[in-house]
């Protein structure tokens, strides 16, 4: 197995804890040989973790991608609105690219990146990690086998988790759509992609409703403060307390995303003075905290999707209803039950794998590296190529347009026709 060398562009949570972690766990498969990251502390951490010297550290993507090509691949895990330029430059320089989702909040940029991948004959794989999980792969396998006949309707729920909602979409980096992406694109393009993949058709029409219902100043409890540590009278009872989520969690599941100093003093300092210690009712957020989407596909099959920031856990549940049977699944418990009509229910086994997103994070990287090693397949169509991702991104754009227009039906073909789209799905 040939070791693949990589330039890491962006060393935040996904960059360090997913792609960087894969290289540390499987050094024979992948080696980080350079990093571009404006934050000096993050650069130093990556240097230590991957044994990089000072001449392998760069402050910007422009610096590293202006050099002669120095690796097999570029892994781009910058913020949403910073994907386009480094991706285009990396493809131009001959890198195969692994790009964090969403590709871009601009349809024109998405289409340009897909076209550039084809023009330069390079891989551009988008991190729609759910397709790479044993759970969703098994459901797709059942559907393809014909066990449930033709799909009539699918119901998919994304339960964001109250603590995840507060961390990422109220206090955190993705709390303002104009600076990153709308919630349906940033968080739920995974779900648009999965629905499109399972049904195996293009979506024809979409309508959507949703709003920022709860995390607003007028909903702040009496006695609350600007920050959780500012003598807030209700902090002990508040489920969104930063002290509860970050300081009292001994696993550091979320505190590692607010500071690199995981000592009690470091976490306390981040809560007291950083953005993650703010009261959730007094942040500058504007993304929705709940949304529903209704879809009709080309053959008449329908799907409904619900995203809610108000759930006790982070999970996805699905119900696939066909003409001959039904599938019900609970992703985080790795539970799949097949109900053939007129027969006994069948518990379906899906191998549990380690890693984030039910094993999808590692599955994505592994498949990307394998495709890079296949020199005859450069520029080919991987499971989540840019061209495959165009459809799910257009679905997300249409859903957001519908939501902003009060739930009007939006035809994907009309939305696509507004773009200079020459790629397939």
From TrEMBL:
Belongs to the Gfo/Idh/MocA family. Residues 140-407 form the Gfo/Idh/MocA-like oxidoreductase C-terminal domain. PANTHER family: BILIVERDIN REDUCTASE A, BINDING ROSSMANN FOLD OXIDOREDUCTASE, PUTATIVE (AFU_ORTHOLOGUE AFUA_4G00560)-RELATED. InterPro entries: Gfo/Idh/MocA-like_OxRdtase_C, Gfo/Idh/MocA-like_OxRdtase_N, Gfo/Idh/MocA_Oxidoreductases, NAD(P)-bd_dom_sf. Residues 6-128 form the Gfo/Idh/MocA-like oxidoreductase N-terminal domain. This is Gfo/Idh/MocA family oxidoreductase. Pfam families: GFO_IDH_MocA, GFO_IDH_MocA_C. SUPFAM superfamilies: Glyceraldehyde-3-phosphate dehydrogenase-like, C-terminal domain (SSF55347), NAD(P)-binding Rossmann-fold domains (SSF51735). It comes from the Bacteria.
């Amino acid at each position: 197995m040939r070791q693949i060398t990589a330039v890491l562009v962006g060393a935040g949570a996904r960059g360090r804890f997913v792609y960087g972690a894969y290289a540390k766990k499987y050094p024979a498969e992948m080696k980080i040989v350079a990093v571009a990251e404006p934050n000096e502390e993050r650069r130093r951490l990556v240097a230590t973790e991957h044994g990089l010297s000072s001449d392998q550290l760069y402050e910007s993507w422009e610096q590293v991608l202006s050099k002669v090509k120095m690796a097999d691949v570029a892994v781009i895990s910058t913020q949403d609105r910073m994907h386009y330029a480094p991706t285009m430059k990396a493809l131009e320089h001959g890198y195969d690219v692994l790009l964090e989702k969403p590709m871009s909040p601009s349809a024109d940029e998405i289409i340009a990146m897909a076209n550039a991948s084809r023009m330069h004959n390079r891989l551009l794989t988008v991190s729609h990690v759910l397709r790479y999980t044993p759970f969703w792969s098994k459901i797709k396998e059942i559907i393809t086998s014909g066990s449930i006949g033709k799909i009539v309707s699918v119901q998919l729920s994304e339960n964001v988790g109250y603590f995840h909602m507060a961390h990422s979409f109220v206090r955190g980096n993705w709390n303002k759509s104009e600076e990153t992406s709308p919630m349906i694109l940033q968080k739920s393009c995974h779900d648009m992609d999965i629905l499109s993949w399972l049904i195996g058709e293009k979506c024809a029409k979409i309508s959507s409703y949703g709003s920022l219902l709860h995390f607003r100043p007028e909903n702040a409890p009496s006695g609350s403060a600007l920050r959780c540590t500012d003598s807030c009278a209700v902090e002990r009872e508040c489920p969104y307390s930063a002290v509860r989520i970050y300081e009292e969690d001994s696993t550091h599941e979320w505190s590692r995303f607010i500071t690199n100093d995981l000592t009690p003093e470091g976490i306390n300092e981040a809560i007291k003075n950083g953005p993650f210690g703010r009261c959730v009712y007094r942040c500058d957020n504007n993304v929705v905290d709940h949304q529903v989407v209704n879809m009709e596909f080309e053959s008449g099959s329908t799907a409904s999707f619900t995203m809610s920031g108000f759930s006790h856990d982070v999970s996805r549940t699905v119900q696939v209803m066909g003409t001959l049977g039904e599938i019900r699944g609970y992703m985080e418990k790795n539970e799949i039950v097949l109900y053939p009509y007129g027969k006994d229910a069948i518990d379906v086994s899906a191998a549990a794998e380690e890693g984030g997103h039910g094993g999808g994070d590692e599955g994505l990287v592994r498949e990307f590296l394998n495709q890079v090693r296949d020199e005859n397949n450069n520029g080919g169509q991987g499971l989540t190529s840019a061209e495959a991702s165009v459809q799910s991104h257009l679905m997300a754009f249409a859903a957001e347009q519908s939501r902003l227009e009060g739930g009007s039906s939006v035809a994907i073909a009309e939305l696509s026709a507004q773009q200079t789209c020459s790629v397939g799905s």
